[in-house]
Amino acid sequence: MAPIVQTHNITVFLNEAGRAEITPAAINNGTTDNCGALNYSLDITSFSCKDIGQNQVKLTAIDASGNSASAPAIVTVTGTCDEEPPPPGGVDPMKFLYILILLPGLLPFPLPLA
Predict the structure, then answer these.
(1) pLDDT, tens digit, for every residue of 46-90?
(2) DSSP β-ladder status, 10-13 and 19-21
């Protein structure tokens, strides 16, 4: 017999880096099974600025006999994201290009070309 998955909706707040993480325990609301211990998983555990608002996640429970069941829950992501996080490596290529285009006209000396 498959587990009976019970979930509840939650609200998470983005941290100062614009991220939030959740675990199955945050969504689980009393899932039961007649085979004892259960293993839980979520299809989505990480949220960022692009996820502000309501997001559906799926909690899955698997019992010792391999039976599984899933149920949805809503994760409402809140927070503020004033600007995009820096790209990997820390330099936005478009901003770098913009500086290269404008900088030569602003300097009192010519820039050496590579």
Answers:
(1) 999 999 999 999 999 999 999 999 999 999 999 988 755 555 555
(2) unpaired
What are the extents of the domains in the chain?
10-82
Closest to 75 in 3D by CA, of 97, 46, 95, 100:
46
pLDDT at 102: 54
Q: Give the up-direction half-sphere exposure of residue 20: CA atoms within 13 A in the CB hemisphere.
A: 24
Could you tell me the fold of the domain covering 10-82? Immunoglobulin-like (2.60.40)
Tokens found for residue 53: 């608002």
Closest residue by Cα to residue 45 from 23, 71, 72, 73: 23
In sequence order, what are the residues at sequence separation of 6 or more whose Cβ sits closer than 8 angstroms to the Cβ of residue 18? 48, 49, 79, 81, 85
